[in-house]
Amino acid sequence: MNCIIIDDEKMARVILKTLCNEIDSLNLLEEFSNAIDAIKYLNENKVDLIFLDIHMPNFSGLDFIRSLKNPPKIILTTSDPKFAIEAFEYDFIVDYLLKPLALPRFKKAIDKAEAKELKAASSTINNNFSKNEVDNDFYVNIDRRLIKIDLPSIYLIEAKGDYIKIKTDHKDYTVHSTLKKIEGKLPGSLFLKIHRSYIINIKKIIDIEDNSVLIMKDVIPVSRSKRPELMKRLDLL
Amino acid sequence: MEQPNLEYINQLARGDESIKNELIDVIKTEFPEEKKDYYNSLESKEYKRIEENVHKLKHKISILGLEKSYEIANEFEHNLRELSLDRKEDFDEILIAISDYIEII
User: Do B30 and A10 touch (CB under 8 A)?
Assistant: First the structure.
């Protein structure tokens, strides 16, 4: 899970960073000393989980929560549990942690966040494959032509500088875009970013060996931080 | 009075000296700044700001394993919300104890 930290106290940020480093499935993207900078960042970047201090001067954690349009999962951090009560009205609040934070309780909160993520992914599968066929494709702009691409036929998307290469069962397409942009259009149930340069269709994996996957004829590296998430998504016997 | 200690920091660092040193460095830098902000806010008698500064310092108190002092800080923070400075002297003593301690770590 890609996460960020918002806390006005440097000590709290360093402690959270230390704890995040203990969990393989967490990828800490950024840390912020105020909520306003975090809002700007969230407008441009996809984040799965936020560690949010409630008690901050000027613009509090609660002000921040109320300002979010599409909130990711949030774990509250606070020295005072009564500040967390109001926030629990929101279903995207996964848990709250009392300061000073300790690893065993931190791990439990991450487990809760991961369980919530898996539940959301399985509900996306149901929605995508039963409800609406239109959700199963999208259009890309190549040389001023809009070309329809069937989502399940995509097996690999590769970053190539300012371009991405979309590989499907039938054909490859080179599109002027970024992995970050296309990631938002793909169903999380089917696709997973396993490396900063690669998104794969997990249903097309042939085999996995150490830190790489074989998908069609391509051998793709898997980042160490992404491997636990990949393993969770596979139907292991 | 109870003495500050590094028990929590040692638990967090799990034997990694670089993490331990980073945490100690942050305390040594951030605590004097927060203490200064606290006394400045006391001078200007801005209760909201005093409360915010006590809240920040409270975290340092807990990190240094001062459980009883943490309760005192909680009470002081609560009193400030009622615009009372009750327990200020006790809180100030805690700050002195921490200031002395971070000089020697």
Answer: yes
| Residue-level pLDDT at A189 | 83
Domains in chain A, CATH or no CATH each: 2-123 (3.40.50.2300), 134-233 (2.40.50.1020)
Looking at residue A120, what is its pLDDT?
A: 72
Paired strand residues for A169: none
- A205-209 vs A218-221, strand pairing mode: unpaired
| pLDDT given at position A217 | 86
Segment B15-36 mean pLDDT: 96
- Secondary structure of A132-192 in HEC code, one letter for each residue: CHHHHEEEEEECCEEEEEEHHHEEEEEEECCEEEEEECCCEEEECCCHHHHHCCCCCCCEE
The answer for residues whose C-beta is within 8 angstroms of residue A4's C-beta and 6 or more apart is A28, A29, A30, A31, A32, A38, A41, A42, A47, A49, A50, A51
* Residues in A touching B27 (Cβ below 8 Å): 11
User: What mean pLDDT comes out for the span B10-35?
Assistant: 96
Which residue is closest to A7 within chain B, CA to CA? B56
Rg of chain A over all Cα atoms, to the nearest angstrom: 19
Report the alpha-carbon distance of residue B77 to residue B73 in Å, rounded: 6
d(CA A103, CA A99): 11
Is 0.90 topped by the overall pTM? Answer: no
Chain B: closest CA distance from residue A59 (Å): 13
Using the beta-carbon criterion (under 8 Å), do B26 and A99 form an inter-chain contact? Answer: no
Residue A237 pLDDT level (bands cut at 50, 70, 90): low
Residue with structure tokens 């397409």? A173
- Categorize the per-residue pLDDT at B40 as very low, low, confident or very high, splitting at 50, 70 and 90: very high
Mutation site, B47, B56, B76, interface A, largest A CB count within 10 A: B56
Restricting to B residues 62-81, those with a Cβ less than 8 Å away from any Cβ of A are: 62-63, 74
User: ipTM of this predicted complex?
Assistant: 0.95
CB-CB neighbors (< 8 A) of A9 in chain B? 30, 56, 59
Which of A8, A9, A11 best tests the B interface by mutation, with the highest count of B CBs <10 A?
A: A11
